[in-house]
Design brief:
The protein is an alpha+beta fold. The chain contains four helices and three strands, in the order βαβαβαα. Strands 1-3-2 form a three-stranded antiparallel beta sheet. The longest helix has 23 residues. The protein is globular. The two termini are 27 Å apart.
């Protein structure tokens, strides 16, 4: 099993509500539509939870600020991920998701 984890920041100037709506209602379904082409087994979004604990964690680690969320994508193996990224469908899906 292999899992890629992306720490996500919204675009500068984008309101947090708009970002979370877009990520959940547009980007998530887009990823799901490409899951077969990418040979991905699982996709998870973890959205930032506003809490006073964020400040405590940030100060304790000297972090510059919180991420807006984390994305996780799973594959059964490294070989499956590499194989999917070398097919025309996988390349097209990856390019569309980056866009």
């Amino acid at each position: 099993m292999i899992k890629l984890v992306y720490c996500v920041h919204r675009k500068a100037g984008m309101p947090q509500e708009e970002f979370f709506r877009y990520w959940k209602e547009n980007h998530g379904p887009l990823v799901k539509s490409f899951a077969e082409a990418l040979n991905a087994g699982k996709y998870v979004q973890s959205h930032l939870l506003e809490s006073p604990l964020n400040q405590v964690a940030q100060e304790g680690r000297g972090a510059s600020g919180p991420y807006d969320g984390i994305t996780e994508i799973w594959w059964n193996s490294h070989e499956e991920l590499l194989g999917a990224m070398q097919t025309p469908e996988g390349v097209a899906a990856h390019e569309k998701l980056i866009e």
